[in-house]
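call fold(seq) -> tokens
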Amino acid sequence: MKLAASILAVAIVVGGSYAAFSYYWLSPTEKFAPPRALTIEKGESFRQIARALADAGVVRSALALRLYGQMSQTARQIKPGDYAFSGGERIPDVMRHLVRGDFVVVTVTIPEGLTVHQIAERLAETGLVCADEFENAARDGAMVRALGLMPLGAEGYLFPATYRFSPHAKTNDVLAAMLARFYQVLTPAVEERMFEAGLDARRLVTMASIVEKEAKAPGERPLIAGVFYNRLRLKMPLQSDPTAEYAYEFDGAKESAASAVHTASAFNTYDFTGLPPGPIANPGLKSIEAALYPTHTEFLYFVAREGGTHVFSKSFDEHRRAIALQRKPPAGKRAAIPAK
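ret:
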């Protein structure tokens, strides 16, 4: 009789434990609408995290979550960030999100060739930053001053890429991420090549930015860079339309290339020999590589043809014939193609 009672008691305890285990660990919570947001701060203890998740109803028990975290050895693998939970999940599911870092992010893609002003506008469209605040920080903020990027600021150094930011990211967080991506490009191999080519970072990104704005066909980037290096070597003006247009972009105004090339400015390479004082856009990796490894060529001129590619020439007479050919309109149609 006593044995039967003991067995019954053990069965009750085991059954109750399994029921509790199933309820707290294995059964999902109810679903939420809308999702419940939760921020996990860097350095926050697992005890604090478990309590916050339980208070939000994401898990049924803080103690059960802590036990699971210890037994699965995942308690120290949680990544800080902003999370949104829709409910209907078990403790293992919740922990999986926390360990993988499935936090809420704002994703923004910065294409190659945008200026600081255009990047600020694109970021503002996501609601991450105020456009004016970001542009001021990128042009004259403490961070760019500390990096020695004055007097022109971060133009050219904001690396085009797809970024994932916390919705609570500050202007300097965004700026720091974009600058960090650029400096990751400056590997020891790149710095060695810069030394061989007689380039510093500013000259590199300045040339790369001009190539970025001129090249429409990706395969022409190294050849266009080769043309510009030839003109620098021979002390010929670069005569790049985008450099003339940038003076207006920098001042927040708009002007056509035809007018810009006739307007004197520090960036108008029709007016002087050599590179402009700084980058005219933020170049991507392929344009940076073209500036580092230009095609060795005898070409000194190029003119755009319909479709985005260019006709390259070695002499001015050859270039003039190419211009005349490209500007010749098809039957019944007028055309105007910009030339170098």
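Residues 149 and 202 are 9 Å apart (CA to CA).
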